[in-house]
């Protein structure tokens, strides 16, 4: 079994370049199905989830060619199947985007219930309600969601919970529906704008992506396109936090600084210096970190995905911080691992109270999910002595060349095989 061995107490210094956004890639790859033609996708992150999606596209009959380490072409003209393989689907959560994409193109989709990180109940009722509003009949049998429609017709859809996945899935299905679809209370994450830009480049008519009302005017057909994925806000945020935690000084390149505002603001509140440039940010650690409170919210609020790495920083701050997790109910499991390293934390429901300590000490710890895995790595970099992080498959699902990027910044981290 692969694990990460980290020798801690290192100061991260230097420059790092951020890869394409995982959450954009996870929507954009299934979305290529709608084109019925060839799409070239650039700045695609080299992560495990992308490999799973490539396998799913090929299993459906798409021709996928790797043109470069971060560039692929997907020709979906030959796709005949509308069924996603159960073994592949359960490896990740975003397999649900095949529902909207296949339904939009073929008016039929069979997608097993998704897997992914266990951070709460994670229902997909809003996806289903949205697709039903467009005229799809949905049946669930033996763990498979079966959607079909004679035709999809535009509708007014109000999401009572702000959901990234439901917003994108409805957008995918609505592109070629008859008439106009309006999604009210839609999510505003940059991935939604990125996916809408891809779909518009294919010939769709989507307006308002990035606001809380999206209007989609159905078109008869879509075609091929070229699209460059935006930089990964969460990868950038992770390295910003790692730089601050290790008393480092790191230039984080290939980012869109406005996407990082909520993280930048919190770091500054903690006394960390963040310099914003056109497409990069420099993070210079503070000699003393100030405790702050965090509440996770949909974009542009503080992202739930950064709650975990940020808690490592708060564990080292001067004073008591209160972290409120508003999006996912079980996103505190990793705090037990952090406590093994000496952090002082108590959890009361959706609130974690963190009393800062002066140091963490290396320990064998477990990555309970993807972002928790990143948090464990940040903790290992700071801690005294050796940390061994197990269950790192989660990290590989979402971080491109993590060890290589960290080693370039001076970290002592390597992959080991251990039972
Ligand atoms: C996406 C991101 C994930 C991020 C999350 C919140 C991808 C692939 N994943 O996940 O990294 O942590 O947004 O920013 O982009 N909900 C329902 N019913 C539904 C769907 C969601 O009640 O049908 C609830 C969820 O339980 C959660 C909230 O809505 O409480 C937000 O979830 P959502 O935005 O849908 O998260 P994902 O799209 O799964």
Q: Which keywords apply here?
A:
binds uridine-diphosphate-N-acetylglucosamine, 419 residues, four-stranded mixed beta sheet, 26% strand, 14 helices, globular, alpha+beta, UDP-n-acetylglucosamine1-carboxyvinyl-transferase, Chain
Secondary structure layout:
Layout: E1 2-7, E2 13-17, H1 22-31, E3 38-42, H2 48-60, E4 63-68, E5 71-75, H3 86-89, H4 97-106, E6 108-112, H5 125-133, E7 137-141, E8 144-148, E9 156-158, H6 164-174, E10 180-184, H7 190-202, E11 205-207, E12 213-217, E13 225-228, H8 233-245, E14 249-253, H9 261-269, E15 273-276, E16 280-284, E17 294-295, H10 304-314, E18 320-324, H11 335-340, E19 344-348, E20 351-355, E21 364-366, H12 370-382, E22 386-390, H13 393-398, H14 402-408, E23 412-417
Parallel strand pairs: 2-14, 3-13, 9-10, 17-18, 21-22
Antiparallel strand pairs: 1-22, 1-23, 3-5, 4-5, 6-8, 7-8, 10-12, 11-12, 14-16, 15-16, 18-20, 19-20
This protein binds uridine-diphosphate-N-acetylglucosamine.
